[in-house]
Design brief:
Order of helices and strands of chain B: EEEHEEHEHHHEHEHEE
GO molecular function (chain A): transmembrane transporter activity
Helix content of chain B: 25-40%
CATH topology of chain B: Rossmann fold
CATH class of chain B: Alpha Beta
Largest interface: A-B, 24 and 30 residues
Shape of chain A: elongated
Largest sheet of chain B: 6 strands, mixed
Strand order of the largest sheet of chain B: 6-7-8-3-9-10
GO cellular component, one term (chain A): plasma membrane
Strand content of chain A: 15-25%
Number of strands of chain B: 10
Subcellular location (chain A): Cell membrane
Number of domains of chain A: 3
Strand content of chain B: 25-35%
Largest sheet of chain A: 8 strands, mixed
Radius of gyration of chain B: 18 Å
Organism (chain A): Olivibacter domesticus (Pseudosphingobacterium domesticum)
Number of domains of chain B: 1
Oligomer: heterodimer
Structural class of chain A: alpha+beta
Keywords (chain A): Cell membrane, Membrane, Transmembrane, Transmembrane helix
Chain lengths: ~800, ~220
């Protein structure tokens, strides 16, 4: 009997080719999207789950009071590690102090590589999910050691055994390789960590660190902990809350920040990374939800097509149902037969979807910056797939099966069967659902791109054209000669040095005092140390006062502020005023404001520019250079590299165009936009396939009516209108439902940005109109064809 | 075998009852070959549908083998179809997606017969109706007469006691029609199948052992 069902299902699919193609195309598109999104969601949900004890690992985080709001930070003061260790001996298996991952130069023989690594205390090897391939797990016990990732080891040593070999890190650390670990997986927070160096070495080579290790002032470091088994994360998190506050005692300046500590569990690092006023407000989990919902909806749309087309085809199937009933089939057997068809269709669609997913995966990985793969050989995957196919097949087959099997045998056999009103309504509802979703997605996508464009059009405050940036570490003392040599190449119009890249701010500090500052005001500024040529090179715009100059010896104690800083401080007539910078550990000096510069957009293009102080100091991390217009870029870079290598033989010459760095800032939003665009197009495609299928069957059902109307004198235009109106009506209803939803959702999304577009009504109007036209175009093939048909044919067939 | 008493069937048209069948009383014995005749709209198809339980009267009682069969549940009704009643339609009503062989086999599948039994029965029927060469063709590839042969073969597959035929030759030419009628006569006389047919044609009606004439929903003869 079952075999018989499959056979009939198969023949029925073959016979109704158009119907089958639309069904399978729609369903497989939906399934592909769902499959890709599932892979993505699975990857996101397994983030940081590699460590066998991940549930016991957490990062210590801190809330501080800043002008009335709680600021949450992942970085804490170094002495906290020791305090945690000595005060909560029973709770913690290990407490590990670490520096944030950063770039350093690794030298071996004549090789120099810049790579990201981490300084951690020796027990850090238990916190990171390391799989040791070579050497020791506890390789950070001696200060002069380094552990490398497999990739690093390959890059430096090739196939030779690295253990025991000596590397130079930057220009002041000699370390010997004690271990090699498997590259950390992409879905680990530590994925970029290519090597580990003991924290103890840092203090040995940098005298500042011995101060920092004792200072409660600088929240610059990370602390990771592993709990002892059977200890509850949440209760420890509560216990340590006031530790820092109690140590600092009252009345010290630092205690006015009222620091409170808590633990952020490893399993939440990735998905719950957003904080507002001391509370966790989610984070990437929003995207997991968002994409899950979208995936569900796309699948729903595809299933809706299936349901719609199956019920539209009901008239054709009705006769068969009648016959089967008259020769003894009961309803259950009929339903089983229809379920067989829907499951078979779903199965075929799923096979196609697997192939589609396979081919679109590279593109999807590119878009999502992941390395997902389809686990074909995983038994769980196969079982879930089978279950999924059955579920979708049964769900989408349920309504058609119920409906078709309910037909009264005699009516269908006598030809009395008609597409009664009862069948039209659910189908109309389903079409409306499809187009509502398609419209919401379309409007959303357009708003995303408008917002990105809005940020791109922003006044940057400097000129990005032909501006290149490259890193350097140690030029102190030779800046001027280096600059002159670079200019002598004749390819550059200007060169300047800075501590922060042009597209970011690397340093923030507090402890500034100025005339009129409220004593309780907790200040914070971005700090950039630059060479005197900085402003000229970037072509910034002075709004008041003057630029830095080599001619004024006093300029080493001068500062230039941006407009935001002037507003932030509330200074009138800033030029010539003095600001004092005093902190507990390092500095106490006064500076004269000599100029005010127009805001430079250096951080998020969506946020207001941060209050920034520019100092003229020789420290430098980056060199900015502007190519002369019309110069051959390759040629110019070769010349620059020659000079660079002369001055910094140990460094890798790595450059980038500032414009590209800036474009990078849009990459996340652009990715979201692209993804939304693709989903929108797919949704529209599925919806259009749906109405195309429907209109085809409707045309068939109304063939006789159209024939009679024609004989009575209706012209083609009026018939096309008659046939189209049914669908136009539905699309218009969908638009009306979609617009308020889209308005609400896009507004919600735009709340993430300080600088945002105002949504204009025409976005909604044009989008709705466009969708209506697409729908009309889709159905026009069929409506025109039906209207053109010769009535003699349709009437004779009766 | 069949006893209809006081069967009424009507439709409400604009507040008035329009009677299709009025007070039908009819007894049909096992082994009879009955032809129901009458002009269009006289209610003969409705009567046949009621006899085949495809339709229900508004009033009256219907005893099939001494058993009341009106108001049966769907399941019991499908059991009756499977065990006792075969249908032959004017428009053949074969399943387009199935071959000749499979069409004949389908009721046997619903009857839950084993594959080997089904094979034997179908092979026998195909042989008897002389359509061996056509068994793998689809209905669309057959002439009307051939399709009707398949339709009858399918109706007989479950060896019903009662065969109901609604204008079985209505779509056929006269030669094909005669063949079908000869077949019916043979089935009735040799296999003892009770046959009730609705027909327009006097000539076809003559093949039966008894003629019932309907006019305006009433038996006139």
């Amino acid at each position: 009997m079952f075999q018989n069902y499959i056979k009939i299902a198969w023949r029925s699919l073959i016979k109704n080719r158009l119907h089958t193609v639309i069904n399978i195309a729609g369903l497989s598109t939906g399934l592909t999207v769902t499959l890709l999104i599932s892979l993505w969601v699975r990857d996101e949900l397994t983030f940081d789950r590699q460590h066998p004890n991940y549930q016991n690992i957490a990062q210590v985080m801190i809330n501080t009071q800043q002008n009335g709001i709680l600021e949450t930070s992942k970085t804490v003061a170094a002495p906290l590690a020791e305090a945690l260790r000595s005060n909560y001996r029973d709770a913690f298996k290990s407490v590990v102090l670490a520096r944030q991952a950063g770039d350093h130069l690794l030298h071996y023989e004549d090789k120099t590589l810049r790579a990201t690594g981490k300084f951690v205390e020796k027990e850090g090897t238990n916190i990171l999910p390391l799989q040791i391939l070579n050497g020791k797990r506890d390789g950070l016990i001696k200060p002069n050691s380094i552990m490398l990732s497999q990739e690093m080891s390959q890059a430096i040593f090739g196939e030779t055994d690295p253990i025991g070999k000596t590397l130079k890190v930057d220009d002041n650390m000699l370390v010997s390789v004690t271990g090699v670990y498997k590259d950390l997986p992409n879905n680990s927070t530590f994925k970029e960590v290519k090597y580990l160096i003991p924290w103890s070495l840092l203090a040995a080579v940098d005298k500042n660190y011995s101060k920092l290790e004792k200072s409660w002032e600088f929240n610059w470091f990370e602390i990771f902990i592993e709990l002892n088994p059977q200890i509850s994360m949440s209760s420890v998190s509560k216990e340590i809350k006031d530790l820092q506050k109690n140590i600092l005692k009252d009345n010290t300046p630092l205690s006015t920040y009222s620091p409170s500590l808590f633990l952020h569990p490893m399993e939440k690092w990735h998905l719950y990374g957003d904080w507002k006023d001391g509370k966790n407000t989610g984070g990437l989990i929003t995207f997991v939800w968002l994409f899950s919902i979208i995936g569900f909806f796309v699948l729903l749309l595809a299933a809706v097509n299936f349901i719609n087309l199956s019920t539209a085809k009901a008239q054709k199937r009705a006769k068969e149902v009648g016959i089967r009933k008259a020769i003894g089939s009961n309803r259950k057997q009929l339903m089983l037969q229809f379920f067989c068809e829907s499951v078979l269709t779903t199965f075929l669609s799923y096979l196609l979807a697997l192939a589609l997913a396979y081919f679109s995966l590279p593109f999807f990985n590119d878009l999502s910056v992941k390395s997902l793969y389809i686990p074909y050989t995983d038994l769980n995957f196969l079982l879930i797939s089978i279950g999924f196919v059955l579920l979708i097949g049964l769900l989408s087959g349920a309504y058609p099966a119920l409906l078709l099997s309910s037909f009264n045998a005699i009516n269908t056999l006598r030809g009395l069967f008609s597409t009664s009103k009862k069948m039209v309504t659910p189908r109309q509802v389903l079409v409306v659902i499809q187009f509502t979703i398609a419209t919401i997605l379309s409007i959303g996508t357009i708003i995303i791109f408008q917002q990105i464009q809005h940020a791109k059009n922003r006044q940057l405050g400097y000129n990005q054209k032909d501006l290149i940036s490259f890193r350097m570490s140690n030029f102190n003392g030779r800046n001027e000669a280096f600059r002159n040599n670079l200019l002598q190449t004749g390819v550059l119009s200007d060169v300047a040095q800075t501590t922060s890249p042009a597209t970011d701010n690397w340093s923030n500090a507090s402890g500034f005092f100025w005339e009129g500052k409220n004593s309780t005001f907790k200040d914070n500024f971005s700090l950039v140390a630059v060479s005197p040529d900085y402003g000229k090179t970037l072509e910034w715009k002075m709004m008041a006062g003057r630029d830095f100059s080599k001619d004024f010896v006093s300029d080493s104690s001068s500062v230039i502020l941006n407009e935001s800083a002037i507003r932030y401080m509330g200074i009138k007539e800033p030029i010539g005023k003095t600001i004092r910078w005093k902190d507990e550990t390092f500095s106490d000096a006064s500076y004269t404001i000599i100029g005010v510069v127009k805001d430079l957009v250096s951080q998020s293009p969506y946020e207001p520019v941060y209050q920034t102080i520019y100092f003229m100091q020789p420290a430098a991390n980056f060199l900015l250079a502007r190519l002369k217009p019309g110069i051959n870029t390759q040629d110019a870079l070769t010349k620059i590299k020659t000079v660079f290598n002369k001055y910094a033989p140990d460094e890798a010459f790595e450059f980038s165009f500032v414009k590209d760095d800036f474009t990078q800032k849009f990459s996340f939003e652009e990715r979201v936009g692209k993804l939304a665009l693709i989903l929108t197009l797919l949704t529209l495609l599925i919806s259009c396939m749906g109405i195309f299928g429907l209109v085809t069957f409707m045309a068939e059902q109304r063939k006789k009516e159209i024939g009679i109307r024609k004989v009575l004198g209706a012209n083609i235009q009026s018939l096309t209108q008659l046939l189209s109106f049914e669908f136009v009506k539905l699309v218009i209803i969908s638009t009306l439902i979609a617009i308020p939803f889209a308005w609400w959702l896009t507004n919600k999304w735009l709340e993430n940005f300080s600088l945002k577009i105002t949504i204009s009504w025409w976005t909604f109007a044009y989008t709705s109109l466009a969708i209506l036209l697409v729908a009309l175009f889709t159905i026009s093939f069929q409506t025109v064809k039906t209207a053109l048909a010769n009535p003699a044919d349709s009437l004779r067939n009766e | 075998m069949i006893q209809l008493s006081n069967i009424f069937k009507w439709y409400n048209v604009g507040g008035n009852r329009s009677f299709v069948l009025k007070d039908i009383n009819l007894t049909i014995n096992e082994g009879e070959f009955v032809s129901i005749m009458g002009p269009s709209g006289s209610g003969k198809s409705t009567l046949l549908h009621i006899l085949g339980l495809l339709d229900e009267p508004n009033e009256g009682s219907y005893l099939f083998q001494e058993q009341e069969v009106l108001h049966l549940k769907e399941k019991q009704r499908s059991t009756l179809y499977k065990e006792h009643i075969g249908f032959v339609f004017q428009a053949y009503h074969l399943i387009d997606e199935l071959t000749v062989y499979e069409n004949i086999e389908t009721p046997l599948i619903y009857k839950n017969l084993k594959g080997s039994e089904r094979k034997a029965i179908v092979a026998d029927l195909i042989d008897r109706f002389g359509i061996v060469g056509k068994k793998d063709l689809f209905p669309a590839q057959l002439s009307g007469g051939q399709q009707q042969l398949v339709g009858i073969a399918r109706a007989l597959a479950t060896t019903p006691k009662l065969l109901l035929a609604d204008e079985p030759t209505g779509n056929l030419n006269s030669k094909q029609g005669e063949e079908i009628m000869e077949l019916f006569k043979q089935l009735n006389q040799e296999d003892g199948v009770t046959i009730i047919q609705v027909t327009h044609s006097e000539k076809n009606a003559e093949y039966g052992s008894r003629i019932i004439e309907l006019l305006d929903g009433q038996v006139v003869k």
